[in-house]
Amino acid sequence: MKKITLLFTLMMMFALAGCNTVQGFGKDVKKAGEAVENAGKK
Known about the structure:
Belongs to the EcnA/EcnB lipoprotein family. The chain is mainly α. The chain has 1 helix and no strands.
């Protein structure tokens, strides 16, 4: 039972870490897009 709980906990940690990474990547892409858009307006 302890092994299953440990495995589940580790899987959830990796899933949450992946979500944070993807979310951060999305923010970076958004800022890059805004920079390109602002450069195009000038």
